[in-house]
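SUBJECT: A protein chain and its fold
Encoding: whole-number codes for local backbone shapes
RECORD BEGINS BELOW THIS LINE
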Amino acid sequence: MAVIEVRGLTKAYGDTLANDHLDFSIEAGEIFGYLGPNGAGKSTTIRQLMGFQAPTEGTATVFGHDVRDDRALRQAKARIGFLPGEPAFTPAVTGRELLAYQAELKGDERRDELLDLFTPPLDRPIREYSTGNKQMLAIVQAFMHDPDLLIMDEPTSGLDPLKQEAFHEFLRAERACGKTVFFSSHILGEVRRVCDRVGIIRDGRLITVEQVDELLARGGKQVRLHAEAPLSEAEFDVEGVVGFETEGREARFTFTGDYNDLFAALADRRIVDVEIDEPPIEEVFMHFYGGED
């Protein structure tokens, strides 16, 4: 049985479908990334999985419990670590007081371990916290009871790069221990680093569910070349060059082909600098999903 099973899940606000008949499942022991630009419907899906909003049509199950059944879902929630997109805390309490209260509610067997990784200033009132400190506190309180399933909405928002990497390492370790992870993101690079599979949502509709390696192969990379002499598109008789642009001696394009072919085509040119980066998720949509209904 899948840990999360989504069938025909739909949420309407008047004439607007925030989620439009979604179908996907998440197996035990995998990291599943839910990818899409802001406003695509990611948070709406998560709120329904947690029972905070009722579906208009369809349903989903978490550990076999229907999200429309509040009593059954409460049993599932004891096994879930939940990180909302915008954690809300009582401003006057300290981080230590908050964690003590949460420990009484659900346990804290992993609190010390998590505080070694994520270091909010526990003895300061939360109203004095930076965005990053609030996010670290939210991570600790969500996972300190050692849940079997992690559900997160944009979990690295506000974290500095070192803490982002610590969080990614944490997720990989959780997967190695058999935990299941479902998180939303609009950052393709983040999904690439940690996910096994990814679901892409656009305008409330699920466009595809596939292995991350397959998605990245189709999404390509952004390439920027700086040469001693101007480059023209005619020189790039290479399969996989998309959206070629040039300005002076700099050329920019998305590349989905074989890099050996690309470098062979450039062998006779003097290249001063080259950068290869992940494309923004908006460009992945534009190149591969922009024409779909």
About this structure: The mean pLDDT is 91. The longest helix spans residues 161-176. The radius of gyration is 22 Å. The CA atoms of residues 236 and 265 lie 7 Å apart.
